[in-house]
Design a protein that fits this description.
heterodimer; A: about 100 residues; alpha+beta; Ubiquitin-like (UB roll); three-stranded antiparallel β-sheet; 2 helices; B: about 250 residues; mainly alpha
């Protein structure tokens, strides 16, 4: 069997209760169930996690490098979107 | 504990260790030969589960024996005739269908066997079983998935898996048979009486095989002898590889 017949999945692991799932890598599998088992075998064998998500890589809609001009640059010159831009009134001592 | 019972428990623990070590070694032969990387890593994990289990059984046997015996003495310094594993474990790796068929039959078996061993009056054996049964549930999930996928897959995968099931079938009989030593330990509520769950095993394996569009063999043939130290020609070759380094460089550490 070659990986050409398999789908690519992205793996997210939550390393401890209360933390977020983090992207840890990707793997090939026939379906979601098998992807979950392989994620267990490939990414949690040294007790790295308490929860696993797998997502088909094709189902992730990702921003592109080419988009960065219109996606991210406009926020660079808008400091008023940060709370620190505004002077605090004297009445508010410490926030 | 009187001496005779202690000796019997040592032999029993070594037998269970032999089953686990020989099977673990066979599965480990897939490492770097897996059909693709992810399955390769998964096979390695399963192999380590069995090798780890053999270490626990051997260590317990060594502790009971005393005289500075260690797990290594059991694993590396006994010859073919001294191993008492069930023959199904030593059958060759074969193709992927062959390993998968064997694994399904054994995973269903271990699931029952270890669940029963958890109730053993011997606390150490019961504790080893409690750890093993969790691993087994995962193994069974994997082997069931693969049997369904290959059996109900392409014409070739179906044929190969059916051939494997037919080839291995007669080696399952001895899994449910007990010699005098084990019968005595069963009476003492230490060992597991596998004959009690043979029908259930057959029903569960049959259900999975049928769902995978495979035929359950009806032929009556059986190969026996593992628990007496009579082996197929495969075990000697396996031990040669398994024991080679340890015997060439005794007591070396790394």
């Amino acid at each position: 069997m070659s990986v050409e017949n398999l789908e690519l999945f992205e793996v997210f692991i939550r390393s401890a209760r209360g933390l977020d799932h983090k992207h840890v890598g990707s793997l090939h599998a026939v379906n979601r169930e098998q992807a979950l088992e392989y994620a267990r075998d490939c990414y949690t064998r040294r007790s790295e996690g308490v929860s696993i998500w797998v997502v088909k890589s094709g189902d992730i809609c990702a921003s592109q490098e080419d988009d960065s001009d219109c996606f991210f640059d406009p926020s660079d010159d808008k400091p008023y979107r940060h709370a620190t831009y505004y002077p605090l009134p004297k009445e508010v001592n410490n926030m | 504990m009187h001496d005779e019972l202690k000796q019997a428990i040592i032999t029993y623990a070594v037998r269970l260790g032999d089953d686990a070590l020989v099977l673990g070694h066979r599965i480990s032969e897939w490492v770097s030969h897996g059909p693709f990387l992810e399955e390769d890593i998964a096979q390695g994990n399963v192999a380590l589960d069995f090798i780890g289990r053999s270490r626990m059984y051997y260590t317990y046997a060594a502790d009971l024996t005393g005289n500075d015996k260690t797990e290594d003495d059991f694993a590396f310094l006994r010859s073919e005739r001294e191993f008492q594993n069930h023959l199904i474990n030593e059958l060759p790796r074969g193709d992927f269908a062959y390993s998968t068929a064997r694994q399904l039959m054994l995973d269903v078996y271990h699931n029952h066997y270890l669940s029963a061993l958890m109730n053993s009056k011997d606390e150490t054996l019961a504790a080893i079983a409690a750890k093993g049964v969790k691993e087994t549930r995962y193994h069974l999930r994997r082997s069931t998935d693969w049997v369904l996928r290959l059996g109900d897959g392409t014409e070739e995968s179906h044929q190969r898996l059916q051939a494997a099931v037919d080839d291995i079938w007669g080696y399952t009989n001895e899994l449910f048979e007990h010699d005098l030593l084990e019968q005595n330990l069963i009476k003492a509520e230490i060992a597991v009486d596998a004959s009690l769950f043979k029908d259930q095993w057959l029903a569960e394996v049959s259900e999975i095989l049928t769902a995978a569009t495979l035929k359950v063999p009806t032929t009556e043939w059986a190969v026996r002898g593992g628990r007496e130290g009579y082996h197929t020609e495969n075990l000697g070759h396996l031990l040669t590889e398994l024991q080679h380094v340890h015997r060439c460089y005794p007591n070396s550490q790394w």
